[in-house]
Amino acid sequence: MTDNAPRDLDTGKPHSARMYDYYLGGKDHFEVDEQAAEAVAFTWPGVFVCARENRAFMHRATRVLARDHGIGQWLDIGTGIPTEPNLHQVAQSVLPKARVVYVDNDPLVLKYAERLMRSTSEGRTAYVEADVTDPGTLLDRVRATGVLDLSRPVALSLNAVLHFVTDAADPYGIVARLLDVLPPGSALALSHGTPDFDPETVARIKEIYTRSGTAMQLRTKAEVARFFDGLDLLEPGLAVGHRWRPEAAATDAGAEQPTEQPTDAEVSLWAGVGIKG
Prior knowledge:
globular; disordered N terminus
């Protein structure tokens, strides 16, 4: 359990990033987060598999974009509490000069941001506190770091974050706004929770998050596909998280490899990578 929380941290209600830390077996969360996460796990034991596979998708997508498409810059929104290997470590294992800006709205992430700054000497990293629902402010803060060159391709990473953005906040408009400032050759790597495989269970999970003060909107495959409008989807297109290029599996030292293939219902994430033409 995390001690010495930042003064502006609200420990009276759960936060999705800290619940995700619990699902991944981390220790940077509070009792209120653990209680909410356990309520989700009681309803859906597969949530631990989902979190693990979402993380694995991020690793594979990052490697593919760095290795096969030569992208050397990332804007990672909804970073969450650092869990090694972080995105910049994966990217820099392929391209040592890779640059990454992390973004999150949980003050606890800032407390542990030093882990996000352990870049190679050739590359650069930065962390900014901002909310995806305010893309204008977010982009201003990203520009202020001076880490990313927005005249060159950037991979926009939105993993397991947009299902916390309801239609009322215009998630499609937010993604379009973020992509609009990125040049051709940039990419969108995205994973998103879905009710397509177990709608009754997902509905109960949504209720738990809502009661905890976190809005949630799971989306169907067709609804998730809309985020890639105008982009060229890489093969195999939009796929359940663990089915997106499993041959590009992470080879991180110490990474725990699943002993059994998860089911689509356990993962319940659509994942894809698109390139801006």
